[in-house]
Write a structure and sequence with these properties.
This protein has a single domain, classed as Orthogonal Bundle (MetI-like fold), CATH 1.10.3720.10. The chain is built from 13 helices and no strands. The protein is 72% helix and 0% strand.
């Protein structure tokens, strides 16, 4: 018997598949697209930082927008209004989105589920200016009597106190419009996460005698927890940057208040930029760009947190 040499026992490397021209073109295009995204993001960041410097270093007394106050004192109420309106919208939209997603994924017949899924996806394509027109012209007037009822019977709660707005154009109206706008995003993500729940987990719960709701509570919701949180954070990021809908709905005053149904409303950063930019000049433009930089950092932080949550739970939910 011939002795086996070390050279014979060495594993042979698998031959590499030839690179076709189509593969090279596709991989090059994908790499170029990824690099383009990074370049655009870096360019936007550099522009915002460079154009914002006069707002931080200039004389507040000479600035036509600051009018003697510091930049942080000027932007503080707008940051509060942006976060407050977005959180209100998220509180309203999250239960609805989870309920609709559960109905589509586990309760509705297949044809109805497909139709509802199509409607939800179509709702995301409606321009924000349409929501703004509907909210400011129609919805605000319709909901104003409800605000009067809240103030009459629940006015002892600070959120519903104060003098009721006669037009209905309040921070709560803006939050309701924002909730409708972010509803498709959150519903679509939650629906996909719910559908990714392993069938064996669901069947095991049902085999043990659980009802459908108990199966959802024990198998679906724990599995989809990370996906639901990331969907909420992405919806929050969408609400933070909304401009036209809030601008057209909200009766702006720039105050810092938690009252929801009065004419004295906080203002969001995007709405303030949209309303102030046409008349801004000189260092006033730098101030508005600086407020945009604050919004950019805030939105980037929210989306980065959402991506971190998704990656942290990806091995359980598959929601990446």
């Amino acid at each position: 018997m011939a002795m086996t040499t070390a050279k014979d026992t060495k594993p042979r490397s698998k031959p590499k598949a030839p690179r076709r021209p189509g593969d090279l073109v596709f991989s090059g295009t994908a790499v170029a697209a990824g690099i383009t995204i990074l370049v655009v993001l870096a360019a936007v960041t550099v522009f915002l930082v460079a154009e914002s410097i006069p707002a931080f270093t200039g004389d507040p007394e000479a600035n036509p927008i600051l009018k003697g106050e510091s930049f942080w004192a000027y932007v503080g109420p707008f940051v509060f209004g942006t976060i407050w309106a977005s959180i209100l919208a998220l509180i309203i939209a999250a239960p609805l989105a989870i309920g609709i997603a559960l109905f589509i994924s586990h309760y509705a017949p297949r044809r109805i589920a497909s139709f509802l899924g199509y409607i939800i996806d179509l709702l995301a394509a409606v321009p924000s200016v349409v929501f703004g027109l509907w909210g400011g012209v129609t919805f605000a007037g319709l909901i104003q009597p409800f605000y009067a009822w809240l103030n009459e019977y629940l006015g002892w709660i600070p959120l519903f106190g104060g003098q009721v707005s006669a037009t209905g154009r309040t921070i709560l109206t803006a939050a309701l419009v924002l909730a409708i706008m972010v509803l498709p995003i959150m519903t679509a993500i939650c629906r996909e996460v719910f559908l990714q729940t392993p069938k064996l987990h669901e069947e095991a719960a049902l085999a043990l005698g659980a009802t459908r709701w108990e199966m959802i509570r024990m198998a679906v919701l724990p599995f989809a927890r990370g996906g639901m949180v990331s969907a909420a954070m992405l919806a929050l990021g969408r609400a933070l940057g909304e401009t036209m809908a809030v601008t057209m709905v909200l009766s702006v005053s720039g105050a810092v208040t938690f009252e929801l149904i009065t004419a004295t409303n906080p203002t969001t950063i995007p709405a303030n930029i949209a309303l102030s930019f046409p008349e801004a000049y000189g260092d006033g433009v730098s101030v508005l760009i600086a407020t945009g930089l604050v919004l950019f950092v805030l939105t980037f932080a929210v989306n980065a947190l959402a991506r971190w949550i998704v990656n942290r739970r990806s091995e359980f939910s598959g929601a990446n």
